[in-house]
Amino acid sequence: MRRYGKHTDEDDIRSRPNRKGNRPRSNIRPKHEDAAEGMVLTVDRGRLTCLVEDRIVLAMKARELGRKAAVVGDRVALVGDLSGKKDTLARIVRIEPRSSVLRRTADDDDPYERVVVANADQLAIVVALADPEPHPRLIDRCLVAAYDGGLDPLLVMTKSDLAPPDKLLELYGDLDIPYVVTSREDLENGGAADRAREQLDGLVTAFVGHSGVGKTTLVNALVPEERRRLTGHVNAVTGRGRHTTTSALALPLSGDDGWVVDTPGIRSFGLAHVDPSRVIHAFPDLEAGTADCPRACSHDEPDCALDAWVAEGHADPARLYSLRRLLATRERREGD
User: Fold this and answer.
1) Model confidence over 96-112: pLDDT tens digits?
2) Separation CA 185–CA 182 (nearest Å)
3) What share of the chain is helix, strand, coil (3-state, %, to 5)?
4) Looking at the predicted structure, is the pLDDT value of residue 58 above 90?
5) pLDDT grade for 153, boundaries at 50, 70 and 90
6) Greatest pairwise CA separation for the chain in angstroms
7) 20 to 30 Å CA-CA from 42: which of 24, 260, 270, 305?
8) Distance of CA 260 to the CA centre of its chain
């Protein structure tokens, strides 16, 4: 077989005949410098609904992007028919760099990472104070994902007419996380939406939470013109909610002062994508106590300084338990 050097004469190069007579393939991709800017609002079976200026445009991903997928919140470049008229289809040719990414896995043993939302400024963790009961472990997991992805957390507690928020506020008060407390009456008279809007104006906020906690109901109150037809009800037998949102959807707040992203209700929030060494960053009330830990401390060993830190009253023991429970889960996954 003949070998060619770096400086071959073009007469020495054999070209494969192009039987179809069309243009030969090239690794050079067009730059699409004249492409329009847009934002992905929702994704449904390969079709992406985008906002281009003041028009809603349906688009598909260009083949040249390969396996790279666009998600809700992505800033993209589009070409083709951008009129937004019925039966027209544009093409996404570029996905701009992301400022933040909210990721999750189905569980801690799942290697497949799912990007939920891109370019969000904060993560609103919606939890019901009753019906269904709040799950602090899920809140902690969402906090880990928020800090790891570059989002600021916001705690939203719903159904305060069924139970007081004191216990959760006491548990997370030292973390200095902004919070909003709502009730059914607040939602009906608009007070809850007004208080929540103060934390949302000018920002892109992703809402996550168990099904049945009132997440979509709150979003409907914030964006009444985009009200959903169904809000769902909690199953009285299992205590679990029925899914009312099947895919993430970005909705504009009135007055163009921000965006809310409603996401499907979650059963679990896996952290397989998070490096265990970064989990401590989601527990700022404990992180300060690691200064006296041994080098490369796993924070779950006899010489860990966090035990003394908690014993001295600097943090709630339940927080340390939650941290070590997450770390133990991560270690079991890595050892499989």
Assistant:
1) 999 999 988 776 666 67
2) 8
3) 30, 25, 50
4) yes
5) very high
6) 83
7) 270
8) 12
